[in-house]
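All the exercises in this workshop are built on plain-text protein records. A record pairs a protein's sequence with a compact description of its fold. Read left to right, the backbone structure tokens trace the chain's path through space. Once this layout is familiar, the rest of the handout is easier to follow. Here is such a record, shown just as it appears in the course material:
>
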Amino acid sequence: MNTKVLMVSAAVVMGVAGISFSFLPQEIVSHLRMGTGPFLPLFLQLLGALYLGFAMLNWMAKANLIGGIYSRPVATGNFLHFVIAAFALAKGLRTGPISGVLWLVTGIYVVFAVLFGFVLFGHPVRKEGAA
């Protein structure tokens, strides 16, 4: 599997989420009608920092050989993030009001969880001509 495409796409998805949560927390809270708690925007900004950090990690590791024992911490962190979040989102779909956006986000997380599972538990393949 070409992990460069996977790492770049994960970096872009997490980067967009990170920038959104970091710089638009009030707007996200009001748009999603999440309540008026004073700590919710702060929590979203902290979540945005986490997403931006993960996005930068994936972006900077995009050229590395990933899989098997190579860059295992990067693959493990991504796999755990996407699997646990996919389970949480699936539970949210089961218990909360059904939303098209929630279905989309859950689908994205499931796809990334499966792909990072292949990377983590599979064997890395170096592209022909790569050093």
User: Anything to note?
Assistant: Residues 10 and 44 are 19 Å apart (CA to CA). Residues 72-95 form the longest helix (24 residues). The mean pLDDT is 90. The chain has one domain: 3-121.
